[in-house]
Amino acid sequence: MCNCIHSCRGVVLGGLLLSTLLPSIALADQIVVLVDENGNRIYVNTCETANRVDWMTRSFRSGASMATAADIDQLVQQTASRYEIDPDLVRAIIRVESDYDPKAVSNKGAMGLMQLVPATAQRFGVTNPFDPQQNLEGGVTYLKYLMDLFGGNVSLSLAAYNSGEHTVQRSGGVPAIPETQSYVRKVKSIYQSGDAPSAPSVPAKATPKEPPQAPITRYVDQYGVVHFTNVE
Questions:
Q1: Is the pTM higher than 0.70?
Q2: How far apart are CA 198 and CA 87, in angstroms?
Q3: Alpha carbon distances (Å) from 213 to 6, 161, 177, 231, 232
Q4: Could you list the active site residues?
Q5: Backbone phi, then psi, for 229, in 5-degree steps?
Q6: Under 8 Å between Cβ of 184 and 93
Q7: φ and ψ at 209, to 5 degrees?
Q8: CB contact at 8 A, 42 and 35
Q9: Which letter does DSSP use for residue 216 in this model?
């Protein structure tokens, strides 16, 4: 049974303050601390449902930066390159995870562009998972860790990103979990097809067409002078 934070005594959610110690029945790794853009701490249980995560992190989502597609693409390029990960693989993951919505929250409480659960966010130092830069930093760092762990095997790394590295290690391959198998197929399909979205290119302005020119004709006036004109 999950001892979710809403059952804890002494938590003043309105002010986002914790006035007493959490009950001893809550395991240490069940509670993570997120800090919003105003420095307020939000205590989240890793098994919170999406509704509770959405409710308790509303200040995160409302304060998330309005990053454009070009901004996100630039962050993907910079962050992935820094960790020596193919940016197109990161783009494919983002497309499947959140469809490029920085405020996305899944029914399991995963948040932001790369859908970080609270435990993963805390593990990789992400204090605001709805901030695109922080989310990408945490997600790409985790992906790099998985790629190193599984010897660069993309399928195993993606499976671990979806279901956890320990699940993949126990399975000795991609786990026989329909959701995980579908996830791996979707991401690899986008990645291998090169269909991962990037910043939309600005269409070039069409060069205005010149009006069709009338043909040049030659005539001789009554004085014997030769004229050339394209005026009808």
A1: no
A2: 10
A3: 78, 63, 68, 9, 11
A4: 97
A5: -150, 155
A6: no
A7: -80, 135
A8: yes
A9: P
Q: Is 74 exposed, middle or buried (0-12, 13-18, 19+ CB in 10 A)?
A: middle
Instruction: Count how many residues are written for the chain.
Output: 232
Mean pLDDT by 10 residues, the chain (232 residues): 41 36 39 53 50 47 66 95 97 96 92 95 95 96 98 97 96 96 97 66 41 61 63 54
Domains detected in the chain:
8-63 (no CATH), 69-193 (1.10.530.10)
Q: Write out the two tokens for 59.
A: 């200040």
- Locate all alpha helices (DSSP H) within 12-68, ordered by sequence: 50-56, 58-63
Contact call for residues 78 and 185 (beta carbons, < 8 A): no
Beta strands in 21-150 (DSSP E): 31-35, 41-45
- Name the pairing type of β-strands 217-220 and 41-45: unpaired
Single-letter code of the amino acid located at 213: Q
CA 214 to chain centre: 56
- Residues 35, 131: contact at Cβ < 8 Å? no
